[in-house]
UniProtKB/TrEMBL annotation:
Substrate binds at residues 163, 192, 249. One of its GO terms (biological process) is L-methionine biosynthetic process from homoserine via O-succinyl-L-homoserine and cystathionine. Transfers a succinyl group from succinyl-CoA to L-homoserine, forming succinyl-L-homoserine. The lineage of its organism: Bacteria, Pseudomonadati, Pseudomonadota, Gammaproteobacteria, Alteromonadales. This is Homoserine O-succinyltransferase. It comes from Shewanella gelidii. Keywords: Acyltransferase, Amino-acid biosynthesis, Cytoplasm, Methionine biosynthesis, Transferase. GO terms for molecular function: homoserine O-acetyltransferase activity; homoserine O-succinyltransferase activity. The record marks 111 as: Important for acyl-CoA specificity. It catalyses: L-homoserine + succinyl-CoA = O-succinyl-L-homoserine + CoA. Pathway: Amino-acid biosynthesis; L-methionine biosynthesis via de novo pathway; O-succinyl-L-homoserine from L-homoserine: step 1/1. It is an enzyme of class 2 (transferase).
Amino acid sequence: MPVRIPDNLPAAHALELENIFVMSETRAENQDIRPMKVLILNLMPNKIETETQLLRLLGNTPLQVDVDLLRIHERESKHTSADHMNTFYCNFEEVKHNNYDGLIITGAPLGNVEFEDVTFWDHFREIVDWSQQHVTSVLYLCWAAHAGLHYLYGLDRHILPQKRSGVFVHQRASKHYPLLRGFDDEFYAPHSRVAEMNVAHIEAHPELNVLAKSEVAGAYMVLSKSNRNLFVMGHPEYQKFTLDDEYRRDANLGIDPNVPENYYRNDDPEQSPISRWYSHGSLLISNWLNYYVYQLTPYDLSDMSAITPWELETESE
């Protein structure tokens, strides 16, 4: 089924070239269907690239999805035109009285900044607080996952001596969650971050479950026991050359970055990257949208009380 996006959003053309079914607002108005309503809080500098990555995954599910794009503040973006932001993004004041089936909060290049020193930290906390009453399920990616775990559950992160960049093998920590349905015992996922959270501290928290982790990259998927909050420490949305772009950007800035691990053929940055995480990245988003949004959300979004109690039956394999 299609993902419904605003007319003329640049991502539409890229997705259509990949045969991903996108539907304009104008066409969708003629259909009599209850689509999933998903809000994306985009904190990444290159808004258009991140929009396209996330819409690519949302468009690869059997559900029709309406997408709204949210900005964290009204300050001018350094990497995205004001015209694009004003045309396609809404402010929180415009949506705070709405209810949504799902909310995705992206990562942000703020790994070395203390959470309380982030310029939009108060706005971030306000949106997270709002989401706990107005959204069926919230998906936090990378920096947002660390920030959400810190704010909601009081967990701290530590700064790594070197940036964690590369594609790492992960193991399922449990087999009994719908989110992991169809996952292999081991699978790959990309990471790009300078901070990490202690897996043992997460596992010891009474309100959290670690669903997947890596011996090298630490926790990858963490789910609240309420099923409302899903924290993904990596970047399942990344495309083949995203890590390459970041590596060469940092090299050009004189940062002398480490070569992303398990990414280039023969670990040689002069050779082509190998994409080996697409299938599980797509499966992750599909399972989240199906089992933790569609299966739990009320038909009438005005009645969010209908989504309680927050329970999904686990399954054995």
